[in-house]
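Researcher: I'm preparing a figure for a lab meeting and need a structural model of a single chain. I don't have an experimental structure, so a prediction will have to do for now. The sequence is pasted below. Please return the structure as tokens so I can convert it later.
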Amino acid sequence: MPTFNQISSFIRKKKYKRNKVLALKGCPQKKGQCLKIFIKTPRKPSSGKRKVARIMLSSGKPVTCHIPGMGGHNLQKFSTILIRGCRVRDIPAMKYRAIRGKYDLKYVYERLTSRSKYGKPKLDK
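Model: Understood. Here is the structure written out token by token.
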């Protein structure tokens, strides 16, 4: 524990928290337009084909984002989508994820659990 003299001579500095999603500029989500849709392969232990899109944000900054969900998607060039900041663990340098069920990106039809993550509305019984 520091003494009174140590506290009075050195001002305590707050720990600097680095922003990991700079393209969002402090916003929770940003709207963008698709420039290109392609497939990436994940890191070493995993294998598969991850669907990825290059997006031009409304702020004018281009970013690469992951399209979540099993099966396909309906994205094309010039589709409008909403993205959020989210690290995709098995794809290198992927810091953004598309939000399903908003604008042109449709929800995942087959989902029964974790529906909120994939934009699936509740079934009416």
